[in-house]
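Hey, quick one: can you model this chain's 3D structure?
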Amino acid sequence: MAKETRGDFYPVPIVDQNTRPGAVARLIVFIVVLTGAAVVFGLFRERLGDPFLLGMLGVLAMIGVGFLFATAIGFVQIAPRSTGDELSKAFVDSMSQGLLVTDTKGRVVYANRAYADMTGAASAAELKTVEGLLSDVPEASMTIYRLASGLRDGQAGDGEFRLAQSIKPGAEPGARWYRARARAFNVPGQRLPMLAWQIADISQERAEQERFFLDLQKAIDHLDHAPAGFFSADQEGRVTYINATLAEWLGIDLA
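Sure thing. Here's the predicted structure for all 255 residues.
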């Protein structure tokens, strides 16, 4: 689990396999190792003798040449993470939607804090993939299966499903609506793609849609029974709506 080094209010991801030590930490470790080696050579120089020291210098020289070669071909990177990488990481870390990234074998590579809070995972050991969490839930299994099948074919997809209870154990009782998105993406330097899953709780959005539909239905009912005739037509003059009052006056059967 990543350490909380960015302040109390930063949503630190529960799993981040790409977390690397900072440049300052690596420099401190290098200085400590170099200082320790110098002290050891200074204390035991008489016992080790010049041939041993020359051999050790030769080994260190070969290691240095190998390091330079690895740096030249890009196998070892000295520069710290770029500003663009930090911006992208901060964006996904602070997303309100749950984000889970796995490899093609289903191993979790990254999970942001929103995903942990949504699923009730308190640690990396308690974390479950979207398939492991919802594949056995009848209301969501068909949607998750369709998205997972699309990922195996390299196709992105999304879907919505309704659950009788929240995904998070111990949450307040009541039905919940969720939207799931899944897509595969390539990572530079890796042969196999990564699989990204997004989960969002859209219960409030659905409730607002239902309220809007009910309000619209009430308005239509009032319009149908108004003491005046109403109708609407498109640009070509075709009637698209006529209320019950006008239909009765004209003798039109709306049934």
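One thing worth noting: The first helix runs from residue 23 to 43.
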